[in-house]
Design brief:
4 domains; Nucleotidyltransferase, domain 5; 20 strands; ten-stranded mixed β-sheet; alpha+beta; five-stranded antiparallel β-sheet
């Protein structure tokens, strides 16, 4: 036992007080933890380390039942304090006379306590009191320790309490992502994650989770570069290629008065809901390098400049800046020029098919490659003819790769057929309305309906001729006919452009396919980590919610990157499912002296869970068995 000093400052007077606590240490895995046995309050007399040690030793002697040969030499003030707190401990049943803890205040390793506490047990009294999930939580906890997040937060000057809450919230977001209200319920009733941090399950509420999310977002500019550097160092990554993309998440509710929530183009087709946008830069290995939360109506090409400025600062020490891989929506001439001016090379699909181009080596056959699904594609280098606008000619010297895919041509034809069917169904519904008593017949209303259908199916509308027959403003017939469409040489064709020189066809194709990594990142954030939909009412809470998802993704990526290197390619949901087979179990029983004995155990990892632990070189048990004795 030992006495711990807690320094507190009066918020009004700014006066500093030293509160004392009697504590004992115990091991949790490979960590040493402290449990408070009893608070000693303000004790001005204990002004030296020696006095504090004497008091702790004397209380321990009284509890164990030993008497010192030199007890008569103990300071009377120390003896009085020892007797007072000894009686308080016994009265509150914090520790029994044999030194075994009644409650969380102290626990002993089962192997040690068995030698001192042999009991005859009534087998019929054995009850499994509590079973909680611990496997996936323990996995994430070790990943967080590997990333050094706890040490980082300590360096940021965070209080121990908020560090514990942050780690608990981060683990919870990774394992069972849901609202703060449901997360608090899971922590209190389903998961044993709080015990990993030495926190009582019932003490953590949703209000703590709201607050810690906001506190984490407040240090975004510090923790994001830290994790970027840490993952590079851990896994020897050089960030030669980075990927940029933008996605959005929708809100539930009206969100009136919010600056962040705005109507925009929803990727989930939720035109009825307001949106918030998230821009991400990731490396080819899938780790987030930078994130930015925007309003829901932000223009995709317009987000790139601010992000590139942040990336320029982050890569200012590198000999060569990374190649940025972009989605076609960002591939504007303005963006390409801006990237070059900032010293970045880029690679992207062109926004539209090139109309005027020349094959670099007409006499050479195109190069045959395979896409991600094993389908054959044909590629060849082409040059772009000069743009009509002088301002657009700056990027005409880029390297352009022509790509022809038969599978893409089939897909385009299938999509065309699908949209055509929907377009015709809408028109047929309008035609049938002409013969119904309350159907739309007035020319003005019919024209309005046709206009809306064309707006809804813009691509399909170009394939049809529509004729309307009317008399005195009343429509009597609508005839639509599909235009004859011939197979074009451009079907299934698209182009990749890059400012990087001396790349062959295979290299360009492989770099382009890294875009699937950022698509997988967004899929994990939206599906596995549930950043959508957003239920929060304030912009502060919304930003905290989204950024917490980004941090949780870094934890997930840390685990999955290492597993992939060991040929374990499970999805995150599958990994969590396998790890959730490991439980924390509390079992109670009654001995022959009518004492209640409680044992807390961590179940053995299943074969699948053990394989994951082994691949990661993590410990497979969250804690050793713990014995608790009640009178």
């Amino acid at each position: 036992m030992f006495i711990k000093t807690i320094v507190k400052t009066d918020s009004k007077s700014q006066k500093v007080y030293e509160y004392l606590r009697l504590c004992e240490s115990y091991r949790l895995g490979n960590k040493t933890r402290h449990n408070t046995i009893v608070s000693l309050g303000l004790q001005p007399y204990l002004d030296t380390k020696l006095k504090k040690k004497d008091l702790a030793d004397r209380i321990e002697m009284l509890l164990i039942g030993n008497s010192s040969l030199f007890s008569q030499d103990i300071d009377p003030e120390i003896e009085a304090l020892a007797q007072f707190f000894y009686k308080k401990i016994l009265t509150k049943k914090i520790i029994s006379q044999d030194g075994v803890s009644y409650s969380k205040a102290g626990t002993t390793d089962f192997s040690d306590s068995c030698l001192k506490n042999n009991h005859t047990i009534d087998l019929n009294s054995i009850v499994t009191e509590e079973v909680r999930e611990i496997g996936a939580e323990w996995l994430c906890y070790q990943a967080i320790e590997q990333l050094g997040i706890t040490s980082f937060l300590e360096q940021q000057g965070w209080e121990q309490k908020w560090i514990q809450y942050a780690i608990i919230h981060l683990i919870s977001k990774s394992v069972y992502p849901c609202s703060e209200h449901k997360t608090a319920y899971c922590i209190q009733n389903n998961s044993d994650v709080a015990s990993l941090l030495g926190v009582e399950n019932q003490k953590l509420t949703r209000h703590h989770l709201y607050e810690v999310s906001k506190k984490l977002y407040q240090i975004k500019s510090e923790i994001e570069p830290y994790l970027s550097h840490k993952t590079n160092t851990l896994f020897d990554i050089q960030d030669k290629i980075v990927l940029y993309d933008l996605t959005n998440t929708y809100f539930e509710g009206r969100k009136e008065g919010s600056e962040l929530a705005q109507f925009g183009r929803s990727k989930e087709k939720r035109s009825d809901a307001k949106l918030a946008s998230l821009a991400l830069i990731t490396n080819a290995e899938g780790f987030v390098k930078y994130s930015k939360i925007y309003q829901g109506n932000i223009s995709e090409p317009g987000t790139l400049l601010e992000t590139v400025n942040a990336l320029s600062e982050a890569t200012s020490t590198l000999n060569r800046k990374p190649l940025i891989v972009l989605d076609a929506s960002f591939s504007t001439n303005e963006n390409m020029t801006m990237l070059k001016e900032n010293g970045f090379d880029y690679l992207s699909v062109t926004r539209s098919k090139l109309k005027n181009y020349n094959v670099v080596n007409p006499s050479q056959p195109s190069v045959a490659l395979q896409d991600n699904r094993g389908n054959e594609i044909n590629v060849k280098f082409v040059t772009k003819e000069k743009s009509k606008k002088v301002a657009d000619r700056k990027n005409d010297n880029d390297t352009f790769l022509y790509i022809k895919s038969d599978k893409k041509a089939i897909k385009e034809a299938s999509m065309e057929s699908k949209f055509s069917s929907k377009f015709e169904a809408e028109l047929l519904n309008l035609v049938e309305g002409l013969t119904k008593p309350k159907g739309t017949k007035k020319l003005e209303k019919v024209a309005e309906r046709i206009g809306r259908i064309k707006q809804k199916y813009t691509y399909a509308s170009k394939l049809y001729d529509i004729e309307v027959t009317e008399k005195k403003g009343i429509v009597s017939a609508i005839v639509y006919k599909k235009k004859p469409v011939e197979t074009k040489a451009t079907d299934g064709v698209y182009f990749i452009r890059t400012s990087r020189e001396n790349l062959n066809e295979m290299a360009i194709w492989e770099i382009y396919n890294t875009l699937t990594e950022i698509e997988a990142t967004f899929r994990t954030l939206k599906t596995d980590l549930a950043i959508r939909p957003v239920h929060h009412q304030t912009d502060q809470n919304t930003e905290g919610h989204i950024f917490l998802g980004v941090l949780a993704y870094q934890v997930v990526a840390t685990v999955r990157y290492q597993l992939k290197s060991k040929k374990i390619n499970d999805s995150w949901q599958t990994i969590v499912m396998k790890m959730n087979t490991q439980k924390s179990v509390i079992t109670s029983m009654i001995d022959s002296e009518n004492k209640k004995i409680t044992i807390k155990t961590c179940s053995q990892a299943s074969s699948d869970a053990k394989a994951i632990y082994k691949a990661l070189n993590y410990k497979d048990k969250a804690f050793e068995n713990k014995l608790i004795v009640f009178p």
